[in-house]
Design goal:
This protein is an alpha+beta fold and 482 residues long. It has three domains: 121 residues, Beta-Lactamase; 80 residues, Helix Hairpins (Orthogonal Bundle), CATH 1.10.287.130; 157 residues, Heat Shock Protein 90 (2-Layer Sandwich), CATH 3.30.565. It is built from eleven helices and twelve strands. Strand 3 and strand 4 form a beta hairpin. The longest helix is centred in the middle third of the chain and has 57 residues. 21% of the residues are buried. The structure holds adenosine-5'-triphosphate (ATP) and magnesium ion.
Protein backbone atom coordinates (compact mmCIF):
# COMPACT_ATOMS: atom_id res chain seq x y z
CA UNK A 1 0.00 0.00 0.00
CA UNK A 2 1.31 3.49 -0.71
CA UNK A 3 1.87 6.08 1.97
CA UNK A 4 -1.03 8.34 0.92
CA UNK A 5 -3.55 5.47 0.90
CA UNK A 6 -2.21 4.22 4.18
CA UNK A 7 -2.79 7.64 5.77
CA UNK A 8 -6.34 7.92 4.38
CA UNK A 9 -7.14 4.37 5.41
CA UNK A 10 -5.74 4.85 8.94
CA UNK A 11 -7.67 8.09 9.45
CA UNK A 12 -10.91 6.64 8.09
CA UNK A 13 -10.47 3.53 10.24
CA UNK A 14 -9.89 5.68 13.34
CA UNK A 15 -13.41 7.14 12.87
CA UNK A 16 -15.36 4.30 11.27
CA UNK A 17 -14.20 1.46 13.53
CA UNK A 18 -15.23 3.15 16.83
CA UNK A 19 -18.61 4.06 15.30
CA UNK A 20 -19.22 0.51 14.09
CA UNK A 21 -18.06 -0.97 17.40
CA UNK A 22 -20.34 1.37 19.35
CA UNK A 23 -23.31 0.59 17.13
CA UNK A 24 -22.71 -3.15 17.43
CA UNK A 25 -22.35 -2.83 21.19
CA UNK A 26 -25.57 -0.81 21.45
CA UNK A 27 -27.49 -3.36 19.38
CA UNK A 28 -26.13 -6.29 21.38
CA UNK A 29 -26.86 -4.48 24.63
CA UNK A 30 -30.43 -3.69 23.62
CA UNK A 31 -30.94 -7.24 22.43
CA UNK A 32 -29.72 -8.70 25.72
CA UNK A 33 -31.70 -6.19 27.81
CA UNK A 34 -34.89 -6.92 25.90
CA UNK A 35 -34.48 -10.67 26.39
CA UNK A 36 -33.03 -10.89 29.89
CA UNK A 37 -33.90 -8.84 32.92
CA UNK A 38 -31.13 -6.45 33.93
CA UNK A 39 -31.02 -4.82 37.41
CA UNK A 40 -29.79 -1.49 36.14
CA UNK A 41 -31.32 -1.13 32.71
CA UNK A 42 -34.93 -2.01 31.89
CA UNK A 43 -35.59 -2.31 28.23
CA UNK A 44 -39.36 -2.32 28.85
CA UNK A 45 -39.13 1.07 30.56
CA UNK A 46 -37.14 2.40 27.69
CA UNK A 47 -39.59 0.89 25.22
CA UNK A 48 -42.63 2.36 27.04
CA UNK A 49 -40.96 5.76 27.11
CA UNK A 50 -40.30 5.63 23.38
CA UNK A 51 -43.83 4.38 22.59
CA UNK A 52 -45.38 7.14 24.73
CA UNK A 53 -43.30 9.77 22.94
CA UNK A 54 -44.28 8.41 19.54
CA UNK A 55 -48.01 8.22 20.40
CA UNK A 56 -47.84 11.77 21.74
CA UNK A 57 -46.38 12.93 18.49
CA UNK A 58 -49.20 11.28 16.52
CA UNK A 59 -51.85 12.83 18.78
CA UNK A 60 -50.34 16.29 18.30
CA UNK A 61 -50.25 15.82 14.52
CA UNK A 62 -53.86 14.60 14.45
CA UNK A 63 -55.05 17.65 16.45
CA UNK A 64 -53.24 20.05 14.15
CA UNK A 65 -54.60 18.32 11.03
CA UNK A 66 -58.25 18.95 12.02
CA UNK A 67 -60.14 22.26 12.04
CA UNK A 68 -59.29 24.17 15.25
CA UNK A 69 -62.94 24.28 16.41
CA UNK A 70 -63.08 20.51 16.58
CA UNK A 71 -61.74 20.83 20.12
CA UNK A 72 -65.23 21.77 21.20
CA UNK A 73 -66.82 18.58 19.83
CA UNK A 74 -67.62 15.79 22.29
CA UNK A 75 -66.38 13.16 19.76
CA UNK A 76 -62.95 14.75 19.74
CA UNK A 77 -62.86 14.84 23.53
CA UNK A 78 -63.93 11.21 23.70
CA UNK A 79 -61.23 10.09 21.29
CA UNK A 80 -58.61 12.15 23.08
CA UNK A 81 -59.66 10.59 26.34
CA UNK A 82 -59.28 7.08 24.88
CA UNK A 83 -55.94 7.68 23.26
CA UNK A 84 -54.38 9.40 26.25
CA UNK A 85 -55.61 6.88 28.77
CA UNK A 86 -53.84 4.24 26.66
CA UNK A 87 -50.57 5.91 27.59
CA UNK A 88 -51.74 6.90 31.09
CA UNK A 89 -51.91 10.53 30.01
CA UNK A 90 -54.36 13.35 30.86
CA UNK A 91 -55.51 16.43 28.98
CA UNK A 92 -57.01 19.90 29.42
CA UNK A 93 -58.77 21.82 26.62
CA UNK A 94 -58.86 25.63 26.95
CA UNK A 95 -60.55 28.45 25.07
CA UNK A 96 -58.48 31.48 25.98
CA UNK A 97 -58.22 31.14 29.72
CA UNK A 98 -61.47 29.27 30.10
CA UNK A 99 -61.25 25.48 30.68
CA UNK A 100 -63.58 23.72 28.20
CA UNK A 101 -62.82 20.10 29.07
CA UNK A 102 -60.41 18.11 31.13
CA UNK A 103 -59.87 14.39 31.62
CA UNK A 104 -61.88 12.66 34.30
CA UNK A 105 -58.90 11.97 36.55
CA UNK A 106 -57.97 15.64 36.96
CA UNK A 107 -59.43 17.60 39.84
CA UNK A 108 -59.87 21.37 39.71
CA UNK A 109 -56.70 21.76 41.78
CA UNK A 110 -54.78 19.54 39.34
CA UNK A 111 -56.02 21.71 36.45
CA UNK A 112 -55.03 24.89 38.29
CA UNK A 113 -51.56 23.46 39.09
CA UNK A 114 -51.07 22.43 35.47
CA UNK A 115 -52.08 25.86 34.14
CA UNK A 116 -49.78 27.51 36.60
CA UNK A 117 -46.89 25.27 35.51
CA UNK A 118 -47.55 26.07 31.82
CA UNK A 119 -47.73 29.82 32.45
CA UNK A 120 -44.56 29.94 34.50
CA UNK A 121 -42.45 27.84 32.08
CA UNK A 122 -41.07 28.42 28.64
CA UNK A 123 -41.15 25.20 26.56
CA UNK A 124 -42.45 21.91 27.96
CA UNK A 125 -43.37 22.29 31.63
CA UNK A 126 -43.71 19.44 34.09
CA UNK A 127 -46.05 19.10 37.02
CA UNK A 128 -46.38 16.68 39.95
CA UNK A 129 -49.95 15.56 40.52
CA UNK A 130 -50.34 13.14 43.40
CA UNK A 131 -47.42 10.73 43.13
CA UNK A 132 -47.16 11.02 39.37
CA UNK A 133 -45.06 13.49 37.45
CA UNK A 134 -46.31 14.67 34.06
CA UNK A 135 -44.71 16.55 31.23
CA UNK A 136 -47.12 19.06 29.71
CA UNK A 137 -47.14 19.43 25.92
CA UNK A 138 -49.15 22.37 24.70
CA UNK A 139 -50.84 22.52 21.25
CA UNK A 140 -52.01 26.05 20.32
CA UNK A 141 -54.95 26.55 17.91
CA UNK A 142 -56.67 29.70 16.50
CA UNK A 143 -60.40 29.42 17.06
CA UNK A 144 -63.11 31.07 14.91
CA UNK A 145 -64.01 33.57 17.65
CA UNK A 146 -60.57 35.13 17.26
CA UNK A 147 -59.29 33.70 20.51
CA UNK A 148 -56.60 31.07 20.96
CA UNK A 149 -57.44 27.55 21.96
CA UNK A 150 -55.04 25.22 23.76
CA UNK A 151 -54.89 21.49 24.17
CA UNK A 152 -52.60 20.59 27.04
CA UNK A 153 -51.41 17.01 26.87
CA UNK A 154 -50.09 15.63 30.15
CA UNK A 155 -47.82 12.63 29.69
CA UNK A 156 -46.46 10.72 32.67
CA UNK A 157 -42.74 10.59 33.01
CA UNK A 158 -41.01 7.78 34.81
CA UNK A 159 -37.75 9.09 36.37
CA UNK A 160 -36.33 5.57 36.58
CA UNK A 161 -36.77 5.09 32.83
CA UNK A 162 -35.04 8.41 32.27
CA UNK A 163 -32.18 7.28 34.50
CA UNK A 164 -31.89 4.06 32.53
CA UNK A 165 -31.58 6.02 29.29
CA UNK A 166 -28.98 8.33 30.78
CA UNK A 167 -26.98 5.34 32.00
CA UNK A 168 -27.25 3.71 28.61
CA UNK A 169 -26.03 6.88 26.87
CA UNK A 170 -23.08 7.21 29.25
CA UNK A 171 -22.15 3.58 28.58
CA UNK A 172 -22.32 4.15 24.84
CA UNK A 173 -20.09 7.24 25.28
CA UNK A 174 -17.53 5.21 27.23
CA UNK A 175 -17.56 2.45 24.62
CA UNK A 176 -17.05 4.98 21.82
CA UNK A 177 -14.19 6.70 23.66
CA UNK A 178 -12.53 3.38 24.48
CA UNK A 179 -12.78 2.02 20.95
CA UNK A 180 -11.60 5.39 19.57
CA UNK A 181 -8.53 5.32 21.80
CA UNK A 182 -7.82 1.64 21.02
CA UNK A 183 -8.21 2.14 17.26
CA UNK A 184 -5.88 5.13 17.36
CA UNK A 185 -3.30 3.22 19.40
CA UNK A 186 -3.51 0.36 16.88
CA UNK A 187 -3.27 2.76 13.88
CA UNK A 188 -0.23 4.47 15.46
CA UNK A 189 1.39 1.08 16.10
CA UNK A 190 0.85 0.04 12.48
CA UNK A 191 2.16 3.39 11.25
CA UNK A 192 5.27 2.98 13.40
CA UNK A 193 5.80 -0.57 12.20
CA UNK A 194 5.27 0.17 8.50
CA UNK A 195 6.86 3.60 8.28
CA UNK A 196 9.05 4.55 11.18
CA UNK A 197 10.86 1.24 11.70
CA UNK A 198 11.84 0.91 7.98
CA UNK A 199 13.07 4.52 8.17
CA UNK A 200 15.08 3.63 11.26
CA UNK A 201 16.56 0.62 9.44
CA UNK A 202 17.42 2.90 6.51
CA UNK A 203 19.08 5.35 8.87
CA UNK A 204 21.13 2.53 10.38
CA UNK A 205 22.09 1.23 6.90
CA UNK A 206 23.10 4.75 5.77
CA UNK A 207 25.29 5.02 8.87
CA UNK A 208 26.92 1.65 8.14
CA UNK A 209 27.51 2.57 4.49
CA UNK A 210 28.97 5.97 5.32
CA UNK A 211 31.33 4.31 7.80
CA UNK A 212 32.55 2.04 4.98
CA UNK A 213 30.58 -1.17 5.58
CA UNK A 214 29.25 -1.77 2.08
CA UNK A 215 28.12 -5.32 2.91
CA UNK A 216 25.21 -4.11 5.04
CA UNK A 217 22.15 -5.03 2.95
CA UNK A 218 19.10 -2.77 2.74
CA UNK A 219 15.92 -4.84 2.89
CA UNK A 220 12.79 -3.62 1.09
CA UNK A 221 10.05 -3.04 3.65
CA UNK A 222 7.23 -0.68 4.62
CA UNK A 223 4.89 1.24 2.33
CA UNK A 224 5.38 1.50 -1.42
CA UNK A 225 7.32 4.79 -1.37
CA UNK A 226 9.60 3.54 1.40
CA UNK A 227 10.13 0.27 -0.45
CA UNK A 228 11.13 2.28 -3.53
CA UNK A 229 13.51 4.35 -1.44
CA UNK A 230 15.02 1.13 0.02
CA UNK A 231 15.39 -0.31 -3.50
CA UNK A 232 17.14 2.85 -4.79
CA UNK A 233 19.48 2.96 -1.81
CA UNK A 234 20.25 -0.77 -2.18
CA UNK A 235 21.08 -0.15 -5.86
CA UNK A 236 23.27 2.76 -4.83
CA UNK A 237 25.03 0.53 -2.27
CA UNK A 238 25.64 -2.18 -4.87
CA UNK A 239 26.97 0.34 -7.40
CA UNK A 240 29.21 1.91 -4.80
CA UNK A 241 30.48 -1.52 -3.78
CA UNK A 242 31.01 -2.40 -7.41
CA UNK A 243 32.89 0.80 -8.18
CA UNK A 244 35.12 0.38 -5.13
CA UNK A 245 35.72 -3.23 -6.16
CA UNK A 246 36.63 -2.09 -9.70
CA UNK A 247 38.89 0.60 -8.29
CA UNK A 248 40.68 -1.99 -6.15
CA UNK A 249 40.92 -4.30 -9.15
CA UNK A 250 42.42 -1.48 -11.25
CA UNK A 251 44.88 -0.80 -8.52
CA UNK A 252 45.78 -4.49 -8.33
CA UNK A 253 46.05 -4.65 -12.14
CA UNK A 254 48.29 -1.63 -12.20
CA UNK A 255 50.64 -3.20 -9.69
CA UNK A 256 50.65 -6.47 -11.61
CA UNK A 257 51.22 -4.65 -14.90
CA UNK A 258 54.22 -2.79 -13.52
CA UNK A 259 55.76 -5.94 -12.06
CA UNK A 260 55.13 -7.93 -15.27
CA UNK A 261 56.50 -5.17 -17.51
CA UNK A 262 59.62 -4.81 -15.40
CA UNK A 263 60.14 -8.54 -15.41
CA UNK A 264 59.53 -8.99 -19.15
CA UNK A 265 61.61 -5.99 -20.17
CA UNK A 266 64.45 -6.96 -17.92
CA UNK A 267 65.36 -10.12 -19.90
CA UNK A 268 65.99 -8.52 -23.35
CA UNK A 269 67.55 -5.41 -21.80
CA UNK A 270 69.96 -7.50 -19.73
CA UNK A 271 70.82 -9.38 -22.89
CA UNK A 272 71.39 -6.12 -24.84
CA UNK A 273 73.53 -4.83 -21.99
CA UNK A 274 75.63 -8.02 -22.00
CA UNK A 275 76.25 -7.93 -25.76
CA UNK A 276 77.08 -4.19 -25.73
CA UNK A 277 79.60 -4.84 -22.91
CA UNK A 278 81.00 -7.74 -24.97
CA UNK A 279 81.50 -5.36 -27.93
CA UNK A 280 82.99 -2.66 -25.73
CA UNK A 281 85.39 -5.09 -24.04
CA UNK A 282 86.48 -6.49 -27.38
CA UNK A 283 85.05 -9.99 -26.74
CA UNK A 284 83.68 -9.96 -30.33
CA UNK A 285 87.15 -10.13 -31.81
CA UNK A 286 86.24 -11.47 -35.25
CA UNK A 287 84.05 -9.68 -37.83
CA UNK A 288 81.59 -12.65 -37.74
CA UNK A 289 81.30 -12.49 -33.97
CA UNK A 290 80.90 -8.72 -34.16
CA UNK A 291 78.14 -9.13 -36.69
CA UNK A 292 76.37 -11.80 -34.62
CA UNK A 293 76.52 -9.57 -31.52
CA UNK A 294 75.04 -6.64 -33.42
CA UNK A 295 72.26 -8.82 -34.86
CA UNK A 296 71.37 -10.13 -31.43
CA UNK A 297 71.30 -6.61 -30.02
CA UNK A 298 69.02 -5.54 -32.90
CA UNK A 299 66.70 -8.54 -32.39
CA UNK A 300 66.43 -7.90 -28.65
CA UNK A 301 65.82 -4.16 -29.21
CA UNK A 302 63.07 -5.08 -31.71
CA UNK A 303 61.53 -7.36 -29.12
CA UNK A 304 61.52 -4.56 -26.53
CA UNK A 305 60.01 -2.23 -29.09
CA UNK A 306 57.28 -4.74 -29.95
CA UNK A 307 56.59 -5.37 -26.28
CA UNK A 308 56.22 -1.65 -25.55
CA UNK A 309 53.97 -1.21 -28.56
CA UNK A 310 51.79 -4.15 -27.49
CA UNK A 311 51.68 -2.87 -23.97
CA UNK A 312 50.57 0.60 -25.02
CA UNK A 313 47.92 -0.86 -27.27
CA UNK A 314 46.68 -3.18 -24.56
CA UNK A 315 46.59 -0.37 -21.96
CA UNK A 316 44.59 1.86 -24.31
CA UNK A 317 42.17 -0.93 -25.18
CA UNK A 318 41.80 -1.79 -21.51
CA UNK A 319 40.96 1.80 -20.63
CA UNK A 320 38.59 1.94 -23.62
CA UNK A 321 40.56 4.88 -24.94
CA UNK A 322 40.87 3.63 -28.49
CA UNK A 323 37.87 4.48 -30.62
CA UNK A 324 36.77 1.83 -33.10
CA UNK A 325 36.17 2.77 -36.69
CA UNK A 326 33.43 0.35 -37.74
CA UNK A 327 32.62 -0.18 -41.40
CA UNK A 328 30.18 -2.49 -43.13
CA UNK A 329 32.39 -5.30 -44.34
CA UNK A 330 31.77 -8.36 -46.45
CA UNK A 331 33.39 -10.85 -44.08
CA UNK A 332 34.10 -13.51 -46.70
CA UNK A 333 35.95 -11.04 -48.97
CA UNK A 334 37.81 -9.62 -45.98
CA UNK A 335 39.05 -13.05 -44.78
CA UNK A 336 39.92 -14.11 -48.31
CA UNK A 337 42.10 -11.00 -48.70
CA UNK A 338 43.76 -11.70 -45.31
CA UNK A 339 44.64 -15.23 -46.39
CA UNK A 340 46.08 -13.99 -49.71
CA UNK A 341 48.24 -11.45 -47.88
CA UNK A 342 49.62 -14.04 -45.44
CA UNK A 343 49.94 -17.09 -47.63
CA UNK A 344 53.47 -16.33 -48.94
CA UNK A 345 54.94 -15.86 -45.44
CA UNK A 346 53.35 -19.14 -44.29
CA UNK A 347 54.57 -21.04 -47.34
CA UNK A 348 58.06 -19.69 -46.68
CA UNK A 349 57.86 -21.21 -43.20
CA UNK A 350 56.66 -24.52 -44.60
CA UNK A 351 53.11 -24.00 -43.39
CA UNK A 352 50.04 -24.48 -45.55
CA UNK A 353 47.40 -21.81 -45.07
CA UNK A 354 43.91 -22.58 -46.36
CA UNK A 355 40.50 -20.96 -46.25
CA UNK A 356 36.93 -22.30 -46.54
CA UNK A 357 33.65 -20.52 -46.24
CA UNK A 358 30.27 -22.18 -45.89
CA UNK A 359 28.32 -18.95 -46.20
CA UNK A 360 25.58 -19.25 -48.82
CA UNK A 361 25.25 -15.55 -49.42
CA UNK A 362 27.40 -12.45 -48.94
CA UNK A 363 27.23 -11.41 -45.31
CA UNK A 364 27.98 -7.94 -44.04
CA UNK A 365 29.23 -7.28 -40.54
CA UNK A 366 30.40 -4.14 -38.75
CA UNK A 367 34.18 -4.31 -38.48
CA UNK A 368 37.08 -2.06 -37.62
CA UNK A 369 39.16 -3.60 -40.41
CA UNK A 370 42.59 -2.52 -39.14
CA UNK A 371 42.11 -3.61 -35.59
CA UNK A 372 40.47 -6.86 -36.58
CA UNK A 373 43.45 -7.61 -38.79
CA UNK A 374 45.50 -7.37 -35.60
CA UNK A 375 43.31 -10.03 -34.00
CA UNK A 376 43.78 -12.41 -36.92
CA UNK A 377 47.51 -11.65 -37.08
CA UNK A 378 48.02 -12.40 -33.39
CA UNK A 379 46.24 -15.74 -33.71
CA UNK A 380 48.02 -16.62 -36.97
CA UNK A 381 51.39 -15.63 -35.46
CA UNK A 382 50.75 -17.94 -32.52
CA UNK A 383 49.93 -20.84 -34.83
CA UNK A 384 53.06 -20.18 -36.91
CA UNK A 385 55.22 -19.75 -33.83
CA UNK A 386 54.03 -22.81 -31.92
CA UNK A 387 53.76 -25.16 -34.93
CA UNK A 388 57.40 -24.52 -35.87
CA UNK A 389 58.87 -25.07 -32.48
CA UNK A 390 56.84 -28.07 -31.52
CA UNK A 391 55.89 -29.89 -34.70
CA UNK A 392 56.36 -33.62 -34.62
CA UNK A 393 57.79 -33.61 -38.12
CA UNK A 394 54.45 -33.39 -39.97
CA UNK A 395 53.74 -30.40 -42.22
CA UNK A 396 52.30 -27.38 -40.47
CA UNK A 397 48.73 -26.58 -41.47
CA UNK A 398 46.60 -23.59 -40.62
CA UNK A 399 43.02 -23.50 -41.74
CA UNK A 400 40.72 -20.51 -41.53
CA UNK A 401 37.03 -21.30 -41.92
CA UNK A 402 33.89 -19.21 -41.94
CA UNK A 403 30.33 -20.34 -41.13
CA UNK A 404 27.22 -18.71 -39.79
CA UNK A 405 24.30 -19.20 -37.44
CA UNK A 406 21.00 -17.34 -37.61
CA UNK A 407 22.31 -14.20 -35.94
CA UNK A 408 26.09 -14.40 -36.10
CA UNK A 409 29.11 -15.48 -38.10
CA UNK A 410 31.82 -17.74 -36.69
CA UNK A 411 35.46 -17.50 -37.77
CA UNK A 412 37.62 -20.45 -36.79
CA UNK A 413 41.44 -20.53 -37.03
CA UNK A 414 42.69 -24.08 -36.60
CA UNK A 415 46.27 -25.34 -36.57
CA UNK A 416 47.85 -28.77 -36.23
CA UNK A 417 50.41 -27.53 -33.71
CA UNK A 418 51.16 -28.86 -30.23
CA UNK A 419 47.86 -27.70 -28.76
CA UNK A 420 47.32 -26.17 -25.33
CA UNK A 421 47.10 -28.22 -22.16
CA UNK A 422 43.84 -28.10 -20.21
CA UNK A 423 45.67 -26.40 -17.33
CA UNK A 424 46.73 -23.48 -19.54
CA UNK A 425 43.57 -23.21 -21.64
CA UNK A 426 41.47 -21.10 -19.22
CA UNK A 427 44.22 -18.46 -18.94
CA UNK A 428 45.56 -17.94 -22.45
CA UNK A 429 43.45 -14.77 -22.95
CA UNK A 430 44.80 -13.22 -19.74
CA UNK A 431 47.51 -10.60 -20.28
CA UNK A 432 51.09 -11.74 -19.78
CA UNK A 433 49.94 -15.34 -19.55
CA UNK A 434 52.32 -17.73 -21.27
CA UNK A 435 52.39 -21.46 -20.80
CA UNK A 436 55.54 -22.81 -19.18
CA UNK A 437 56.42 -24.52 -22.44
CA UNK A 438 56.25 -21.23 -24.36
CA UNK A 439 58.26 -19.41 -21.73
CA UNK A 440 61.29 -21.49 -22.60
CA UNK A 441 62.57 -20.53 -26.00
CA UNK A 442 59.67 -18.97 -27.83
CA UNK A 443 59.70 -15.19 -27.77
CA UNK A 444 56.62 -13.30 -26.74
CA UNK A 445 55.13 -11.21 -23.97
CA UNK A 446 51.84 -12.99 -23.44
CA UNK A 447 49.83 -10.03 -24.72
CA UNK A 448 48.82 -11.31 -28.18
CA UNK A 449 45.59 -13.09 -27.19
CA UNK A 450 44.76 -10.53 -24.48
CA UNK A 451 44.83 -7.81 -27.18
CA UNK A 452 42.78 -10.03 -29.51
CA UNK A 453 40.16 -10.51 -26.80
CA UNK A 454 39.92 -6.76 -26.10
CA UNK A 455 39.42 -6.01 -29.79
CA UNK A 456 36.82 -8.78 -30.31
CA UNK A 457 34.91 -7.58 -27.26
CA UNK A 458 35.12 -4.05 -28.68
CA UNK A 459 33.13 -5.50 -31.59
CA UNK A 460 30.64 -7.02 -29.12
CA UNK A 461 31.92 -10.42 -30.13
CA UNK A 462 33.15 -13.49 -28.25
CA UNK A 463 36.48 -15.26 -28.59
CA UNK A 464 37.31 -18.67 -27.16
CA UNK A 465 39.70 -21.54 -27.69
CA UNK A 466 39.27 -25.28 -28.06
CA UNK A 467 42.40 -27.35 -27.75
CA UNK A 468 43.99 -30.44 -26.31
CA UNK A 469 47.61 -31.22 -25.75
CA UNK A 470 49.14 -32.57 -29.00
CA UNK A 471 45.83 -32.18 -30.87
CA UNK A 472 46.21 -28.74 -32.42
CA UNK A 473 44.48 -25.51 -31.47
CA UNK A 474 41.19 -23.97 -32.59
CA UNK A 475 40.51 -20.30 -31.86
CA UNK A 476 36.91 -19.29 -32.54
CA UNK A 477 35.42 -15.83 -32.90
CA UNK A 478 31.70 -15.10 -33.03
CA UNK A 479 30.48 -11.72 -34.32
CA UNK A 480 26.91 -10.47 -34.75
CA UNK A 481 25.59 -10.15 -38.27
CA UNK A 482 24.85 -6.62 -39.40
N1 LIG B 1 48.29 -21.89 -31.59
C1 LIG B 1 48.78 -22.13 -30.37
N2 LIG B 1 49.39 -23.31 -30.11
C2 LIG B 1 49.89 -23.57 -28.90
N3 LIG B 1 49.85 -22.71 -27.86
C3 LIG B 1 49.29 -21.53 -28.06
C4 LIG B 1 48.72 -21.16 -29.32
N4 LIG B 1 48.19 -19.92 -29.20
C5 LIG B 1 48.45 -19.52 -27.94
N5 LIG B 1 49.09 -20.46 -27.25
C6 LIG B 1 49.47 -20.39 -25.82
O1 LIG B 1 48.83 -19.27 -25.26
C7 LIG B 1 49.77 -18.39 -24.66
C8 LIG B 1 49.29 -16.95 -24.81
O2 LIG B 1 49.35 -16.55 -26.17
P1 LIG B 1 49.62 -15.04 -26.51
O3 LIG B 1 49.49 -14.88 -27.96
O4 LIG B 1 48.72 -14.22 -25.66
O5 LIG B 1 51.08 -14.80 -25.99
P2 LIG B 1 52.43 -15.12 -26.67
O6 LIG B 1 52.20 -15.68 -28.01
O7 LIG B 1 53.16 -15.99 -25.74
O8 LIG B 1 53.14 -13.73 -26.72
P3 LIG B 1 52.84 -12.54 -27.74
O9 LIG B 1 51.70 -12.96 -28.56
O10 LIG B 1 52.60 -11.39 -26.90
O11 LIG B 1 54.10 -12.42 -28.54
C9 LIG B 1 51.04 -18.68 -25.36
O12 LIG B 1 52.13 -18.36 -24.57
C10 LIG B 1 50.95 -20.17 -25.63
O13 LIG B 1 51.35 -20.87 -24.52
MG1 LIG C 1 50.99 -14.59 -29.36
Amino acid sequence: MNLKRHFIFANAAAVVIPLVMTAVFALVFLFISSNFKSPWFSFEDYQTLSETQIELLYIKQDILKQSPDVIKSPEFIKELQTRLSAINGEFIVLQGEQVLFNSHNLSKIDVAKSLDAVNSHVGNASVKLGNMTYRIHSVKLSLAEGVSGYVLLLVPIDPSALNDVTRFLILIGIIFTLSFVLTNVFASYRFTRRTLSPLNHLKKAAGEISSGNLDYPIVEEGDLEIQELCRDLELMRLKLKDSIHTQLKFEENRKMLISSISHDLKTPITSIKGYVEGLRDGVANTPEKHDRYLQTIYAQAKLVDQMIEDLLLYAKLDLKQLPFDFERTDIEDYLYEFVLENEPACTQNGIELSFQSSLIQHTQILLDQNRFRRVLMNILDNSKKYIQKNSLGEKGEINISLRDTQSSIIIELMDNGPGISKDDLPYIFDRFYRSDRSRGKIKGSGLGLAIAKQIVEGHNGIIWAVSKNQEGTRILISLSKF
